[in-house]
């Protein structure tokens, strides 16, 4: 049973307020612990913000200035885009020439010799089960072989097994179209089945479509191959595209093909010369490099700002009681100063800035282009020391280098090598960023980390334990104060009772 608390009944004192005031003084160390916890949490979150920014920048490097594809982007000029289209796939050099299209590649075709009917002579419905349409029973098998993209015939037939009691013509056609090298189509007007090879071109040594199975021959009235169908006037052979490239006549199985890393698509067989040429797509390449420089500048500005941010020692994190006595704007302004300087002079981030500057300034050795420094491609460091290594682009010079030799820029950023000096700037930066991120994670962890796996987390756990112990002690201290004041009140009450008794005794004897 808890001790009964007597608050000022005998003494007339405001015992409750007095104990609250005494507890305020007792709680000062606890408030400091809670302020310490808040500061550690701010520091942890600020470290994680730095890590996210570095991680995002590392990814931007990888997807931008480090990729070969960034530097092989080409703009292509064509005298007649309605005849031919040209786009770069993986060419590093420029590309020009003429092309004259004599004929386009076509796909092999074939179709039923007559209208398809049900086995009982009734009208064929492609939605009905094949067992009902054609009287088929038991597992059935059909096989299809067709020409491939490279113009050669597939080595083997594609086999499809089906249950006619479960399969309709519509559902089977869907399987054939999905699984084989042909496209089938049932025409409800003519009641015939059409078959076309998915790939264009001539086999050169036979048919481009071959069909096996009684469903094809007996019920769909299709020939065994498109050559047979063509001879009977119900099909056509596949044809290669025929064209002259820089005056040399040649063929391709498809209207779309690759020469020297460029993809050409033939659109029209007009038999007229179409000229084309390529050059580096300066704008697109420049865009990637400008993005890299902008994000690099943002990163070093942010990190340097954190390293040099002032620490206001007189502004401690606010306690809950202090917040209650302040306006929202006052809290915001106070905490802005209280949170300032959490990463001031941090050794890990300071080291990262020094390494990144070295990554940028150190020449890239062993390249083939003779270009080994950013200044040679129009990127230099700001002369304003207050900007702490900010990069500035001379756009005219950078455009000139892109137009002349984009591969030189690729080597400066992305060249691989056994030593740091031989590696491109982007590779060095990513390695520095990775090491820094790992070091920061040891201090501040990441969102998925548990506190005992990183330094600040362990400090937070220790602070939480101290807070818990101190709060238990506060309960004991408050109970002690109440016991003392209650004992005092009881003593005063007894003294008052004795005084009253004596007064009554003396008064009664007079």
From TrEMBL:
Q: Which residues form a coiled coil?
A: none
Q: Does the keyword Secreted apply?
A: yes
Q: Name one GO cellular component term.
A: extracellular region
Please give the chief subcellular localization of this protein: secreted
Keywords associated with the record: Bacterial flagellum, Cell projection, Cilium, Coiled coil, Flagellum, Secreted
Domain Flagellar hook-associated protein 2 N-terminal: residue ranges: 11-108
Q: Where is the Flagellar hook-associated protein 2 C-terminal domain?
A: 238-497
Q: Where in the cell is it found?
A: Secreted; Bacterial flagellum
Which terms does the UniProt entry file under GO BP?
bacterial-type flagellum-dependent cell motility; cell adhesion
Family designation: Belongs to the FliD family.
Q: What does this protein do?
A: Required for morphogenesis and for the elongation of the flagellar filament by facilitating polymerization of the flagellin monomers at the tip of growing filament. Forms a capping structure, which prevents flagellin subunits (transported through the central channel of the flagellum) from leaking out without polymerization at the distal end.
Q: How does it assemble?
A: Homopentamer.
Know the name of this protein? Flagellar hook-associated protein 2
Q: Which organism is it from?
A: [Bacillus] enclensis
